[in-house]
Every structure is written in structure tokens, then in C-alpha cells.
Amino acid sequence: MRRTDGRETVTAVTTQIPDVRDHRLSKDEIEANFADLHAPLSRSEALIEADRCYFCFDAPCTQACPTDIDIPGFIQKIRSDNIRGSAQTILRENIMGGMCARVCPTEVLCEEACVRNTHEEKPVEIGLLQRYATDPIIEAGTQLFTRATSSNKRVAVVGGGPAGLSCAHRLTALGHEVVVFNRDDKLGGLNEYGIAAYKTVNDFAQTEVDYILAIGGIEVRNHCALGEDVSLEDLRSEYDAVFLGIGLSKANDLNIEGEDKEGVLNAIEYIAELRQTEDKTTLPIGKTVVVIGGGMTAIDMAVQSRLLGAEQVHMVYRRGPEKMTASAFEQALAQTSGVTIHHRAPPSRILGDEFVTGVEFKTDTGEFVLYADMVFKAIGQHTDGIEGLTLENGRIVVDDGQMTSLEGVWAGGDCVVGGDDLTVSAVQHGKLAAIDIDRRLREG
């Protein structure tokens, strides 16, 4: 089969049995592949890097940080070997500063704004310095925060992800009692179930959760989902305020022919399984994999397919590279990991009989087919509507204080308009909501 522009294409054979199996690589190979993406800085490396900071008066790096961390301030404390003070500067604005140091797209936020970011030199490695400051404190469980006098107010937080935990921690620090309703086995949300395994090794997500809960005053109820085990109406009647950090629980469909074939999988569900599996060699992966999407989830799925032993991985996006939500760094990471990225190619149908054997794509210049043993869908998520809340394009509308259209109900994270699938943004939403909830509760 040829494309209409004359170039060769890979043809899917609908009768071929896909090559999907586990143990494509040895355990040692898998462990090496999923080692820490960025090695932490040693003390000498951190001091040298901290010394590169100009400590700008206007601090463009801080202005670029969604959580308003005083970046020159925490770097200055590293220079003076005040790790506790540096961590406190970070964590008082971003209680998940440890995770954000690992997964934040610093290359398009604080580090892009760094005045050293020129053609002649690289920016200060703010993310690695942030990790250097926070890791010892979080891993040792050194508590930097205390609770205020009890307000005798109770707040329900729905969702145990970054937005919910950030809101819960700030509320309890302000003296309120908090109950977190979490649908999963563990707290952490995206950090626990949705981030590439090579970005958060050694179960750091749960270490950070334990640190957040150690402040006290936070009750956790796992396996409790909104709309199934508890209703918003009941929460509003039983609690003084409600915060929704429910994320986007429904994966978008391709809505094309053949989508229901065996071997067409949801990337988010697969990544969650990958994150929770102790022995990654047991996960089945295809020899040739196609990932459909252009965001961070698509990148994470494509790279991890390679790390699990897939020989060919194609990532296909329906628009041009300038429209991809994955950062340039993440796209480069995928390409250097052996992933081939195709642009401007929306899928038209899934090929195969019972199981998938390929995907047909249509472009402005014609059609082409990519052979595949497995196909992963990573084209975004949505949430079901909640009665009484104003939605816009499937997300909850909130004001500057994260309050929804329902009195006494706030929301943040990916579920709200402006949510951008970033831990750092969700943390900021939760913090802003907690501050606004506290103000309104104390005003009566």
C-alpha cells in the first residue's frame, strides 16, 4: 500500500496475530530503564549551582512559578547551608514542592524565565535545587508546620490528589477539621497513579502524602466516590464548606471504527497499572506500539512502552507540533528514547479482526497505515456534570478564589476551567481555595 503522496507506508495485515507479551526485557534491564530520570544533586553540586543565581530583585523565576515560591530566597538559603529554611520557603507556598521538583515543566516556567537562560549559557537548575532542599525534610518527616487553634469548622475535601491534599493541608494548618473523601486505594491522585514511573522512583508519592498528613487534623476515607458513596447535597448539609478536587475521571474516546478491538487500551489506566505493579517485567507490551495523542500522558505512555521493551513506538498527533501540550523537553525526551512522532494525522479507523493490527490515519495529502500490536488512547479526559455547578467545555467554572456557582462549594485542579494537567497548578488551586474558605468561614 502507498500513500497518495508516493511515499511508502506500513501496511496492517488483519489476520496477523499481534506480538504482545510480558518479559520482553529482564528485570535488571527494566530496573535500569526505570531509574531516576534526573539524578539528585550532591552538596557540592548544589552549592555550585546555587552560586549561579543572580538573586534578581524582580525575580522573573518567581513570577513564572504558579505557586509563587520565593525562588531566589530558597536558593540563597541553600548557599548558606540552611536546608531547613530553604525547604520551609518552598513548602509554605507549595506543600508538594518535592513532587513538583520532579515533574514540573520547569523548562517552560521558572527556568525559562531565568535571566541566565540565553544562547550562551543554561538557566539555573531550579528544579534540582528545589529537590535538594525538600527531599531531606520530607524523607525524614521533619514537620515544619503547626496547626492553628481550632475553628470548630469542618470542611469536606473530595479528591485525594494534588488539589485536594493541598487544600486539606492549608485548611488544617489554619485550624479547621478536614475530611478527605478519596475514591482510590491510596491518596495522591495523579502523582500516585498518572505520572511516568521513571519520574517518581522509590514510592516518593506516598512519602510525600505521609508528610502532608503528619500535620494532623485530616481524616481520610478511601474508596468513597462522589455520586456513588456520597452526594454533594449531603456534604453541603453536613459540612461548613466543600472543596472538589475530583480531576477528570473519564477518558475521551476516539469515536472511530474499530475502537473496541482487543489491544486498544486507555493510556491512563495502563500507566496506573504500571505505577502499582511491583514487577514491571510482568506487564504485557507490544513489539510495535502506536500512541494517539499529543500531551504529557501520550509522551509518558510512549516513552514507557520503549522502556518496557517495545521495539517500535509511534506517537501520532492530529495537529501540528506547535499545538502539542507536551513541552519541548518532553517531546525531545520521547524522540531520544526512540519514539517516532507524527503530526497532522487524525486517526480514521482501527484495523484488525478481533484484535488490533493497525491504525489508519487521514492527512491533507492522503492516507497511511501504521502496523501495531497495541494502541493506546491518550487524547484527554473529561468529567461528568455535577448538578448545580456551572460548566464550560466539561469543566467547572470558578472565580478567583476557586469558588463555584454553588454557595459553599469550591473546586480546583484539572476539573476546573483553566486546569492544565500540572501538579503545580492543582496545588495552587487547592491553596487559594483554602485561603478563601478560611476567610469566608471566619466572616461567618
Which strand order do you get reading across the main beta sheet? 4-3-2-5-19
Please give the CATH architecture of the largest domain.
Answer: 3-Layer(bba) Sandwich
Number of helical segments? 16
Instruction: Report strand %.
Output: 15-25%
Biggest sheet record? 5 strands, parallel
- Percentage of residues in helical conformation: 25-40%
CATH third-tier fold name of the largest domain? FAD/NAD(P)-binding domain
CATH class of the largest domain reads Alpha Beta
Taking all Cα atoms into account, the compactness measure Rg is: 23 Å
Structural class: alpha/beta
Give a structural overview.
The protein folds into 3 domains: 20-33 and 251-380, 3-Layer(bba) Sandwich (FAD/NAD(P)-binding domain), CATH 3.50.50.60; 43-140, Orthogonal Bundle (Fumarate Reductase Iron-sulfur Protein, Chain B, domain 2); 154-249 and 383-443, FAD/NAD(P)-binding domain, CATH 3.50.50.60. It is 34% helix and 17% strand. It has 16 helices and 19 strands. The chain has helices at 27-33, 43-50, 60-64, 71-79, 83-91, 97-103, 110-113, 126-140, 162-173, 190-193, 204-213, 232-238, 267-276, 296-307, 328-336, 423-443; strands at 20-21, 154-158, 177-181, 218-221, 241-244, 250-251, 264-266, 285-286, 288-292, 312-316, 339-342, 347-352, 356-363, 366-371, 374-377, 381-382, 391-392, 395-396, 409-411. The protein has a 5-stranded parallel β-sheet, sandwiched between helices. Helix 4 crosses helix 8, helix 6 (97-103) packs antiparallel against helix 8 and helix 14 packs parallel to helix 15. The longest helix has 21 residues, at 423-443. Mean pLDDT is 94; it is low at 1-8 and 10-14.
